[in-house]
Description:
Layout: E1 2-5, E2 9-11, E3 17-24, E4 33-38, E5 44-50, E6 57-59, E7 67-72, E8 77-82, E9 91-99, E10 102-105, E11 109-113
Parallel strand pairs: 2-11
Antiparallel strand pairs: 1-3, 3-8, 4-5, 4-9, 5-6, 7-8, 9-10, 9-11
Amino acid sequence: VQLVQSGAELRNPGASVKVSCKASGYTFTSYYIDWVRQAPGQGLEWMGRIDPEDGETQYAPKFQGRVTFSADTSTSTAYVELSSLRSEDTAVYYCGSSQDEHDYWGQGTQVTVSS
């Protein structure tokens, strides 16, 4: 199982960013994709999840309305898009898949919001 994320991003405040997570080694539609982030000096923060099979999403209340999860089953790729970026969104973003007794994570994508 591999989850490979897109590269680092630098954005101005107010802009949007979209991070990808390409899955391989398993049936993409069989397991949720979770998204978490870690800001500098902070712990992991769960953002929500998507079920690639039907596109059903769950958002942590803090991110509702500003974050959009999506999944492309033709390429086995999940996406998180964060809009109206602010400096507090500077963090490393991770996708993950919890499969039976194993958890798999992407390598992380650094998103930096700075003017």
